[in-house]
Fold each of these.
Amino acid sequence: MHEALESAFSLDGRVAVVTGAAGGIGREAAITFAQAGADLVIADVGEEGLAGTAEMVRAIGRRVVVRRTDVSDVADVDSLARTAIDELGHIDVWANVAGVIRYFPIVDAVEPDVRRIVDVNLLGVYWGVAAAARAMGSQGRGSIINIASAGGDVPAPTLSVYGMTKAAVMHLTKTAAAELGPRGIRVNAVAPGFIETPMTSPQFTDADGTVDPARRIQVLAVKSSSSPLAMTGETTDITYAMLYLASDASRFMTGQTMRPNGGVFMV
Ligand SMILES: NC(=O)c1ccc[n+]([C@@H]2O[C@H](COP(=O)([O-])OP(=O)(O)OC[C@H]3O[C@@H](n4cnc5c(N)ncnc54)[C@H](O)[C@@H]3O)[C@@H](O)[C@H]2O)c1
């Protein structure tokens, strides 16, 4: 690859914090960032998954700090930022990937479910943006990446709360970009379409955890049918967009939502 291009997309010497890194898109983001040269601070409530991700990052040859963190807890998120600075010296990239999904009709909504989705998917991102901005402000540079969803663009029955949190994340991204740009901090979002991960696989998994191959094919076919490309995505379809936003390749980009979604929604 041409040297200028390689350096534009490189994360050499950078420190990236990734929440939701125990599996799925967050784990893949940690791997992609490590492959691009970053050292990692990985956070999640799932400690076993985090250990697995840490192993993968180490195998790539990058340093990794593991920190169990509940992103809905502001003190925990602040402490994650402090750990990153104490252990690795600075924070250049902060990716808010942690999220939860629950399906229920509005008429059946119960308060604990509604509050949990808002606490993790929206306030978890908010606390992450705030902690990252404080850490990056003193450096005068940084990139914050928030994971939204096509569910924040396309209204889907039973996903009222999930959808509203993801739409709000896209708006928060714009406000934060406007506020933090003068301090050298860029804030962008990525709104994925359907990706097969631990979040979506229960749609074709039996109660004992085994995948039902026929149901899997059926679900993927239904999801693909709303894409002009007739496909669903893979985790790297999201993390390559995240790498662009994390790196200097996107230095002129802030307040935007990238939509690797197979074309299921177009702006
Ligand atoms: N998979 C998809 O099709 C899809 C589509 C659009 C958006 N997304 C978004 O992508 C992000 C990653 O999802 P995924 O598909 O990789 O699912 P996933 O379930 O594999 O990953 C989510 C991670 O977040 C962690 N998490 C949950 N609550 C947490 C909390 N309070 N604090 C810290 N970590 C917590 C989970 O333990 C899990 O490891 C989510 O924000 C999700 O909404 C996924």
Amino acid sequence: MNYFSSPKINKIQEIIKKYLNKIPLVKNKSSLIKNTLFDAFESEEFLLIYKSFAKEVATQFYGSPYKTCLQTSPTPRIFFPNSHGTSIHSDYWYGHGLSAVTIWIPILNSISGATFYADHKKVIQNNIHSSTFSLDDLKRISEEITKKDNEVLPPKNSAFLFDSTTLHGSTFNSTQKTRISFDFRISKIEDKTSTKDLDNYLIYDEHIDQYNLPSHKLYGKRILKYICGGNNKNTFAQQILIDSFSKRYNLQITDQEAEIERYGYPILEGLSSGYKLKNEYDAIVIASEYIAHEFFSNKRYKDSKIPIWSALENKQIL
Ligand SMILES: [Fe+2]
């Protein structure tokens, strides 16, 4: 097994355990556990050591962290007793590129029966390039991978590293303990085999020798939040999407405008043709292209005087 040892792992584990202290690791507290883990991942002390540990891994895996990117926030895993975990898969199946490496860090109860399995010797036939892939393959792989030799049990101060084609998964927790762990990915930025949006990654910046969130094209701009009601257009979800998008990229929403939906898209039409409402804006952010699908598919409006961005697709529509 490819275990990676570093004194930083112990420090990372201590930070997370401090957050989880006094929380019972039981199923009806699963939201609290998850939210607490997210709080820990957002904390200054965690982020500092997370980024420096990632640099250490990238240096060993690629020779240097140059032109690599790091998952913005790790993915927490909570594996309760007598329950099923993540189905067997390789990260490549889910869009990660061939250059990606996954780092799995145990926090609590990563013991035999509660940990996960990895086909570290790559002996299972996994049909990665096959167009005949079916869920029967999943069943076969799940059965083949479940053997003692494939259990991931990192020694003290160690993490488990695996590439994106390695099959892995948590089949069933047969112990009475809840396992807590987290994982994250590092990848090359110019990986053509990846389908991931690089805007969701921290990029290694050689000038400051650290992973850093690159500034968004809308950073520092005056932004108008645009909401549109109507059938099958949930305004609550639109608000959440735009707010989270703005928070992630540190964007400033100056004002908010709602569409006069009874008359089509007069607000969007006016703004895109240069009509001024309350203030001057540099961009409009909309939840998704779908929200004003009829407007965007109308050839009359193929240009806009002010850029219109979609939060969901993270792209400029017009
Ligand atoms: Fe995975």
